[in-house]
Amino acid sequence: MLGTTNVYESDLAVDQYLLFHYGTAEDQLPYSFGPREALFYPIRCVSDFLPAIGMAERALDLGCAVGRSTFELTRWAPDVLGIDLSHRFIAAANRVRETGRIEIRRLEEGELITQLTRELPPDIRREDCRFEIGDATNVPTDIGRFDVVLASNLIDRVKAPRALLESFTGLVNPGGHLILSSPYTWMEEFTPKSAWLGGRYRSAGHPALTVDGIRETLFGAFDLRFTKELPFLIREHARKFQWSVAQATVWQRK
Ligand SMILES: C[S@@+](CC[C@H](N)C(=O)[O-])C[C@H]1O[C@@H](n2cnc3c(N)ncnc32)[C@H](O)[C@@H]1O
Question: What is the pTM for the complete model shown?
């Protein structure tokens, strides 16, 4: 059904995302071969860009899932908010915030599970962030503005991506930054085709790319500072992985 987030409320999704966000390299990819540069995507969404952006006062991670990027943002801002629609993801993120510990059920094959316990790096200031259940396309009006807004792998998971992009004008402080990252995996299960930002033909032989749809939407209020290809790897089980390449675009509010 269009717009449901059930997929992100399942045990499978919680287990998969806890491993994706908090597993070590060996936990995620226990082979001597494979795309190691695709590991630690939720960390890289922050560490690849914040050194160029610099310290901030307030940061927002929209579609934060189980929270790794939110925690990483506390290295750069003393007030960080992570918002996600999934109750299960936010409950998991809050458990990490409270304990600094992550209990991961890693699927091996069939119904075989390995239980892993991992720790959040001790230099992360857990107390500087909080997590809330919420809709990124309808944030509370009193949420205020932020110096950094991150939306990773979110724009192709909402019903109205253009409205989401337009809302960033009111969410990012003048001079502040918006980090968008997405593999542009458009699916009608999440986004009606008429709302896709790209990945369609404007007319016969004239393809519209998502990056151009983003540029057209953000153009008046933001300058594009840089783009970067960000590979990521999500382990499904010991012998099956999703390897994707997100495109990150970093925008500065005029
Ligand atoms: C593909 S996951 C990406 C999660 C995380 N940013 C990452 O890169 O690992 C998409 C996330 O967006 C969340 N989500 C989907 N629609 C949302 C909405 N309207 N508001 C807030 N979160 C949403 C899902 O619950 C899920 O956690």
Answer: 0.97
Residue 180 beta carbon below 6 angstroms from any ligand 1 atom: no
Q: How far is the CA of 105 from the centre of ligand 1 (A)?
A: 20
Burial category of 64 from C-beta neighbours within 10 Å (exposed 0-12, middle 13-18, buried 19 and up): buried
Q: Please check whether residue 79 lies inside any domain of the structure.
A: yes
Domain assignment present for residue 19? The answer is yes
How close is the Cα of 184 to the center of ligand 1, in Å? 13
End-to-end alpha-carbon separation of the chain, Å?
Answer: 38
Number of domains in the chain: 1
Domain of 118, in residue numbers:
6-253
Q: Which atom of ligand 1 is nearest to the CA of 135?
A: 20
Across residues 221-247, what is the average pLDDT?
98
- Tens of pLDDT, residue by residue over 17-32, are 999 999 999 999 999 9
Q: What is the CATH number of the domain that holds 28?
A: 3.40.50.150
53-100 pLDDT, tens digit per residue, is 999 999 999 999 999 999 999 999 999 999 999 999 999 999 999 999
Whether residue 190 contacts residue 157, with contact meaning beta carbons closer than 8 Å, is answered with yes
- Asked if residue 1 is part of any domain, the answer here is no
